[in-house]
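Table 4 source record.
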Amino acid sequence: MHTQQDPMDPPSPGVVTDVRPRWVTDELIEQWCAWVHRDETRTEPSTAEPLTASAPFDLSPVAPVPSCEPRDVMAAATAAAGAQRRWARTPLARRAGTVLAFHDLLLERQDQVLDLIQWETGKARYHAWQEVAQVAAIARHYARRAGRYLAARRVRGMVPGLTGVRQLRVPRGVVGVVSPWNYPLYLGAGDVLPALLAGNGVVSKADPQTPLTLLWTRALLHEAGLPADLWRIVAGDGALVGNALVDAVDFVSFTGSTATGRTVAERAARRLIGASLELGGKNPLIVRADADVAAAAAGTAVAAFTNTGQMCIHVERVYVHEKVYDAFRDELVRVTGSLRLGSSYDYGCDVGSLVSAARLAAVEAQVGDAVAKGAEVLVGGEARPGAGPLFYAPTVLEGVTPEMDVCARETFGPVVSLYRYATDDEALDLANRGAYGLSASIWSRDTREAARLAGLLRAGSVNINDGAAAAAGSIEAEMGGMGDSGLGRRHGAEGIRKYTEAQTVAVQRLLPLGPPPGQSARTFVQRTNGQLALLRRLRVR
């Protein structure tokens, strides 16, 4: 039924009767589950039911994982806080060495985590590998650049020469990370690594659909040298455990829906702690009249159908200049229709499964609503049970109008809608509609003009002649959303500095601030006013 390989061997497709990777033993699962934090002072048994996700490829149960209660979350945060105080005193070079060791182990054993990601999410293997590549890049980047991003900075003091001032970056303490199922390695580890390098402890909430991927990652970081208590994992009911996490930590990094993000932000605000939120998107792509139509169509298919469309930055709205609309539409339909669906544990498929029956039902409902109200399905538009119980064909819609749910509401599935436009101003107006502002794309041979237009788009990232990956994969550049797409940034300098507090240390030398001994306050004010006026005339900043 499914092709699969041993993680230590080169790819050699075979046929198996179970989607569970054959190297995953009950003993290994038990070892990973030991990383789920439990309150060791508890005397009574936990009443929380274990989590057991269903494998999208065939709906078989994956593996039971212990659930946590609020007291377990508090115990995890307390343990991480104790370890953090020691870790913060560890030289940055040693912290970076641990992260680089993790980088090497991740690349060496990537086939293991690729299997786990596919088992838990149902995505195509190449899309799982993109997570490995992204996390490796994040680990390498921050291990090499954290010293520069976090370096103390000398600034001008109140009295030049007499007041010496340095600005420091100090760890926040314990960071809570809530990551979703759609990118369990990238979003699970990509925010943890810079938080650790900045000197923090971390408590992560594992998504109920993908806990094994996160637990495998935690075990690998421990093998790389990370102290046991420094990064703790909790699992369980989203609202119960998630609320307890926000209540227990010093900063929250959340990736998920806009609705839940608002709740997280409100709860964090009540405690006066910071939060970084990457939320939903309804991302536009603009095809200008001078675009390379074949390249734009191929790039649109990648941006729309990567990860089966279950990606916050994937493209859902495509605005095409009327002069090239027909040619682009026909080419996109051709490319989309050629995509290979399947559940193989090798690189033979282009598009994988949706993650759950609920996700499949949501996609079917949006497409059904659009068709019922007059939209036309150009390709796809139906479930593909022959490929697996949760597969849905990559879909291109035409004739979508504002009263249809698919027009403005995030689909989070393999569906894209086409719209005509006549002028750049019209395209910008259409692309900027709605409350989201996460990612956007422009295709044009005139990259200078495209860059000018990019500055007029309400989006945290704009890709020119690429759908989404160019900006997201540029780890040195910050990434995040505007409007309902969130607050804060990951990647780049802000991606690590957000896990620190700014601290100013000022040293006053020789003379005190204020009137010196023997001088009246009136005389001091008069002389200082003259100095201030002189500094203004000299254009001193």
